[in-house]
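Input structure tokens:
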């Protein structure tokens, strides 16, 4: 018989309100919000959302157009993640605005899809060369890398929710 404990299923710990305030003061990693309304109530998550919107505006990702019922308008969703350092300590809150592309129709709304990815074998070769040459290897996180691509098609998306 497989119990919940053996399967790795555990009830989340519930702390008294006083202890939760103490954890907040210690800057323990915030919990990932379940909704935009929850995120807006937190300073760190709201700041992460504003950073994402500012990056989108700086890169001229969109322009506002009047609503038309004849357009296929794609919805959007906020995705929240807590980023950690190598040692597991809290680094920052990260919010991303993503389009709900699954509402589009292939052949009508777009012709083909492409996602630039790197093969695992390429990473292994680079790391092998780095080890043999005694190079220092560092990780790099590119913010908003997708913004550097150009779309041939017009994509219409509803404005994101950023306030209560």
């Amino acid at each position: 018989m497989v119990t919940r404990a053996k399967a790795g299923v555990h009830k989340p710990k519930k702390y008294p309100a006083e202890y939760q305030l103490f954890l907040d003061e210690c800057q323990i990693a915030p919990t990932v919000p379940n909704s935009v309304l929850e995120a807006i109530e937190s300073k760190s998550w709201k700041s992460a959302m504003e950073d994402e919107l500012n990056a989108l505006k700086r890169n001229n990702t969109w322009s506002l157009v009047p609503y038309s019922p004849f357009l296929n308008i794609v919805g959007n969703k906020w995705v929240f993640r807590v980023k950690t350092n190598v040692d597991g300590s809290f680094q920052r809150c990260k919010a991303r605005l993503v389009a709900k592309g699954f509402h589009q129709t292939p052949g009508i709304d777009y012709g083909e899809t492409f996602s630039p990815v790197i093969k695992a074998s390429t990473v292994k070769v680079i790391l092998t060369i780095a080890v043999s040459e005694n190079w220092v290897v560092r990780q790099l996180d590119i913010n908003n890398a997708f913004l550097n691509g150009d779309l041939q098609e017009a994509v219409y998306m509803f404005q994101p929710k950023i306030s209560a």
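The beta strands are 73-74, 76-84, 90-99, 156-157. The first strand starts at residue 73 and ends at 74.
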